[in-house]
Amino acid sequence: MALKKPAPTAPSSDDERRLARDLPGLLSALAAADPLARRWAARDLAAHPNASRALVDRLRIETEPSVSQVILTTLTRLGDEIAVAGLTECLRSEDAMLRNAAIEAMKQLPDEVAPVMEQLLKDDDPDVRIFAVDVLESLRHPRVEEWLIRVIAEDPHVNVCATAVDLLGEVGSERAVPTLHALKARFVDEPYIQFAADLALKRIAQG
Amino acid sequence: MTQARMISDEDFRKFREFFYRKTGMLFEDSKRYFVDKRLLERMDATDSESFRAYFTMVRFQASGEELQTLINAMTVNETYFFREEYQFRCLVDSMLEEIVTHTRQQRALRIWSVPSSSGEEPYGIAIYLLEHWPRLDDWDIEIVSSDIDTEILNQARRGRYTHRSIQNLPPSLLAKYFRRDGDHYLIDQELREAVDFTRVNVSDAADMRRHRHFDIIFCRNLLIYFDDLSRKQTAESFYDALNPGGFICLGHSESMSRISSLFRVRKFPEAIVYQKPWEAR
């Protein structure tokens, strides 16, 4: 036994190659029994701008986390309206890993996510509103501060406001100061809000 | 000639976007001088009258030859033998030991070194195994090494090095595995024949699909040139290039935990590496 020269690297012909790599072939492979074939199909679908719907549909029923991860990456790469809607839908998932992966994916699509952000921040489900604030955490978009100010001005749920005020401590400017004072007045009996708003005010004052 | 031409801000942005789509490599504004200099050199070499003319050729040339030349010019290929040697110790003392313990059927173990650069890493791995892994008597090892830069791959196949490349090697190993060739050092022919060098663009799914069934991947200081999404995409392709239980080693400043949650962090005494779970499908 020793160092051995490998056989020349050539296109493989097994499992994931059984199906054609055109759109119909990849859509079939996306439903294959073998997770490896599904991952390769999801990856290759990044080259097909019309694949978002099929990927979103698969994501709803996919049980293998590694396949879901690849689907999310491809949806981020495609970044069209359907893809963004699919990512948004994941914010309602009970699966924490999927939810977090979707949040991370959405952070990378500032321009595409911006049109749905207002709607997300007004969602009926406070958890979805918290996750939307989590997306804002590193969304490179000029309206982030404006959205956060609106959340602490209007959102009735203390946990949503607490998440937003934490973030305002990091990204807020003088513009946020009056609303932070108003928040303290609105949740006068909530010690965490008092603490977090004071901290945000201090950080803003320090520049 | 070069001085007469300019790369405007808009040209730079256009080129950056195009190059990113093709390779996954993203040049920050701070790399502007580096990019401009190489673009102007290639415009000179191809007698292109303007950036626009050159860019059109790069985009639409059927052979893709100029794009490949440009990729060769834009990649950084600086390395040396036994760089970050602690990971090689981890390879022989921990990773390979775990893999052979779990592997019931006798088969060749496969190592992938990417990017190969001029070959210091894959040849260094080969030397380290020959010197420090006694089980090499019982197991076959295959080493594949890949790069996007075809010129550097040819250089790697030649195995000819300057003093700078070999300065970390103990004199005994230098004497054993190299011979002097003027001012250079030529690596032993058997070692040259033991490594399969291939061209791969890690951002290209079709390229990546051809590289599979590896037990260990060394991918050090490559992903730092990518943006978050390309980094994630590449990590997911590496996941499928690995056998279950396979390991990936990144550069000392890189962390897979910030890229993808598919891998498990493994803290061995010698190094932190990342593992595709044994139970992965």
UniProtKB/TrEMBL annotation, chain A:
Q: InterPro entries, alphabetically?
A: ARM-like (IPR011989), ARM-type_fold (IPR016024), HEAT_type_2 (IPR021133), PBS_lyase_HEAT (IPR004155)
User: Which SMART domains does the record match to this protein?
Assistant: EZ_HEAT
Query: What Pfam families has UniProt attached to this entry?
Result: HEAT_2
Protein name, entry field:
HEAT repeat domain-containing protein
Q: What is the lineage of its organism?
A: Bacteria, Pseudomonadati, Pseudomonadota, Gammaproteobacteria, Chromatiales
From TrEMBL, chain B:
Is Methyltransferase one of the keywords UniProt gives this record?
yes
Recorded catalytic activity of this chain's protein: L-glutamyl-[protein] + S-adenosyl-L-methionine = [protein]-L-glutamate 5-O-methyl ester + S-adenosyl-L-homocysteine
Q: Which domain of life is it from?
A: Bacteria
Give the EC number. Answer: 2.1.1.80
In this protein, which residues make up the domain named CheR-type methyltransferase?
1-279
Instruction: Write one Pfam family the protein is assigned to.
Output: CheR
Keywords assigned by UniProt? Methyltransferase, S-adenosyl-L-methionine, Transferase
The entry's function note states:
Methylation of the membrane-bound methyl-accepting chemotaxis proteins (MCP) to form gamma-glutamyl methyl ester residues in MCP.
Q: Record's PANTHER family?
A: CHEMOTAXIS PROTEIN METHYLTRANSFERASE, CHEMOTAXIS PROTEIN METHYLTRANSFERASE 2
Its recorded name reads Chemotaxis protein methyltransferase
Q: Which organism is it from?
A: Marichromatium bheemlicum
